[in-house]
Amino acid sequence: MQNSDQHVSFRKRVVAFLQHWVALAGHSFFEDPVGAAFIEEIYCAILEDSRDQPQLLAELSAVEQLMQERERALGSSTRAPVILLDSGTVRDLPINSPALPFDLCIIKVHCVEAHRTSTLKVRSDIKCDSLRRLAAQKLGLGNGEGVELVELKSNGEKVTFSSDDVGVPSSMSHNGRLFACFKDQIDSLVILPEQSGPSESVHSVILETLSSAELAQHLLIYHWQLFHNTHEYELLYQTIGRNRFPGRLPVNLDLFVRRFNELQFWVITEILLCTALSKRAHLVKKFIKIALHAKNSHDLFSFFAITLGLSNVAISRLSQTWEKVSTKFRKQFFEFESLLDPSRNHRAYRLLVAKISPPVIPFIPLLLKDLLFIHEGNKTSFEGMVNFEKMHMMAQTLRNLRAYKAHAPAIDASKVSPEAQHLVHNFRVIDDQRKFIQMSKALEPRMKDS
């Protein structure tokens, strides 16, 4: 009798542990073939044992639910791939599913010889070495021997990818372009005209037709989708090393971080492309109002991206523009800026987050910074023993991330315009700080700038 009770107790604990594990790992648990097979093995064992042990019927029901989750996860894993990025522009995001490593990206690879370009459709998790050989073949550069893949950014910076890098298309900068060239050609790479970004606003209709509240709402909807799709594990992949997790790729995190930069650049771009002083001041005021709505909706992602954009030196030096902004809005913005204060480990931001309840779309760059600080500042093991203190610190950051998405934000579907929602998915931006400064000085030159 005692053995029978122990037998039941052991199985109850195994099922409880398994439920907790799946709840933490989510879709990632079933992406691993071993995990998917393990669920089935446990199900068969509990099914057989429950015939003689009716005390296990509740556990059988629990494992059946896990099997249903497994089937749903495997179903999404066998869906048709979508094109996530088309030459750097977000094209399709899966509906009711995160982006997965087999989803596709369309990327142009340029060649300095004869100014050739090849457009490739590749998996988002393609290894740099495979992409390099494919590009070399398409561009007539032989088998790829000696060929380097280099991102040329709009500011002239060059980034050479290593052969074991993964997810190149989703990790590039907004106006960066990919070149396949030999090592001795890297220094001769020249920025393409298209990398300069827009010369006039292509989004003025959004800013003119939508109110600040409406724009903030549309940003909230899109950013919640990106955040909800980003699993906590992806932050670990990024922190510990993208190439150290075969078959895994933080592609949703890539899209999320990319969007943060895009929104920040968009604020700067729109203001600097506005040549009329009064209109420019109105635009600054509107972005402050959007940031306020975002903060009140707990969309700290949008709030800080907009605030950082307005804090950029190319905008902050526009004294004539800021003089046209009312004292009320300038004071409001100074309060926003104070939340960016990095002193005392970003205490102002952390106090803000502690005061608000989920759902929250967080300031993702700071979360990544926290994890990187923990990872690089603490040894994973010491004298053959695992540093569990480090694990607990990283786990706490990830628990916070999970808590932020405990439930979805309340969204009034009747106020959501599909057309406007589509428009806010991609912003054409300038992403070169030197160009921002040049544009700023051209708008409002000072004596010492002349």
UniProtKB/TrEMBL annotation:
GO terms for molecular function: guanyl-nucleotide exchange factor activity. SUPFAM superfamilies: Ras GEF, Ubiquitin-like. One of its GO terms (biological process) is Ras protein signal transduction. Keywords: Guanine-nucleotide releasing factor. SMART domains: RasGEF (SM00147). CDD domains: RasGEF (cd00155). GO terms for cellular component: plasma membrane. Residues 211-446 form the Ras-GEF domain. It comes from the Eukaryota. PANTHER family: EXCHANGE PROTEIN DIRECTLY ACTIVATED BY CAMP, ISOFORM E, GUANINE NUCLEOTIDE EXCHANGE FACTOR. This is Guanine nucleotide exchange factor for Ras-like G TPases N-terminal motif family protein. It comes from Trichuris trichiura.
